Amino acid sequence: MKTGIDEQEELFRPIDLEFLQVGGTEFFDIFYKTTTFGNTQFVKFASSHPAHQDKIRKLIQSGESNEEFYIREEDLSKYHSLATKSLRNMISDPKIPFQEKTQKIYDVSKGIMKEFFDNNASDKMLQTSEEVMDIMEQCLSENEAGFHFLTMITSKDYYTYTHSVNVGLYCMSYGIKTKMGSNDTKELGLGGMLHDVGKSKIDASLINKKGKLTDEEFQTIKSHSSFGKEILESMQCYGLNVIRMAGEHHEKFKGNGYPNGLVGEEISNFARICKVMDVYDALTTRRSYKKAMAPFEALTIMGKQMVDEFDFNILKNFVHYMGPDL
Ligand SMILES: [Fe+2]
Ligand SMILES: [Fe+2]
């Protein structure tokens, strides 16, 4: 049974105050959290109305506040539209270091995917990710970001939402490094971020199960790639490359993957790239039951024990672009 506190927490979401500086025509209330005698309450601090913005601006400028701020769940789409507007301004500002920009875009993407997986947000939430990936492509292609840098900002704890954003980022970086062209690179990043959306249709307790899976449970988990393809198709806003990444990222280059046991170039090039990034991120992040592998260790396993699963040219390119820091 849920307590009153849980219910309160479910109605609010943390936000990054900096994004409110751009102002806008849409207003929503901003809250902070207090706990008195074990009782959590969200207290109104300001609205994003220009008349209230001074309060927020002063707080940001003072740099003294460690307080987290929140908005009501129903205002998330307004907040995301302000956040993306703010990210757009930020990436064209030469005074802001590239690392800081990338980290901000990463954090917004994480928020979107977390909302989708953890809070059963509607498919509409996913559409915001397209805009954010567009911004990410601009940011990464204008700066010579080594792959090593990306591995420093990505989360090393495995959750479906962090894994999704990591794979999206790695795919995008692969597209830029191999000069795939801007549109393909954006699709690759977006498809990477959305490759596991089908997991939203599977019971979270099964996704997070620690012990060995029964055959039946494994079959259920496996259905996520077909579910993902169906979800993205039904949204009618994604291209075939993105849809095939969701549907084919568990196919193996030499066959015997799922759902269709496709072989070699029957698997789309985009899905073959996704497969490499998917496995790499799964190996290099930690879960409650396993440690994170170091990049070198992960690539060694991928190149030896798992080599039949990948398109060797993609794996080779990936190892090449991991850079001298490896
Ligand atoms: Fe998957
Ligand atoms: Fe995955």
| Tally of separate domains | 2
Uncertain runs are none
The unique ligands bound to this protein are:
fe (ii) ion
Query: What does the main sheet amount to?
Result: 4 strands, antiparallel
Q: H/E series, N to C? A: HEEEHEHHHHHHHHHHHHH
Give the integer mean of the pLDDT values.
88
CATH architecture of the largest domain: Orthogonal Bundle
Strand content: 5-15%
Strand order in space, largest sheet: 1-4-2-3
Helix content: 55-70%
CATH class of the largest domain, anyone? Mainly Alpha
Rg on CA atoms, Å? 21 Å
Structural classification: alpha+beta
Number of DSSP E strands: 4
CATH topology of the largest domain: Hypothetical protein af1432
Task: Describe the fold and architecture.
By secondary structure, the chain is α+β, with helices and mostly antiparallel strands. The chain folds into 2 domains: 1-74, no CATH class; 97-321, Hypothetical protein af1432. It contains 15 helices and 4 strands. The chain has helices at residues 4-11, 50-62, 76-91, 98-118, 123-142, 147-153, 160-177, 182-194, 204-207, 215-222, 224-235, 240-248, 269-283, 295-303, 312-321, and strands spanning 12-15, 29-36, 39-47, 69-72. The chain has a 4-stranded antiparallel beta sheet with strand order 1-4-2-3. α8 (182-194) runs parallel beside α12 (240-248). The longest helix is centred in the N-terminal third of the chain and has 21 residues, at 98-118. The radius of gyration is 21 Å and the shape is globular. The N and C termini lie far apart (48 Å). 37% of the residues are buried. One fe (ii) ion binds next to α7.
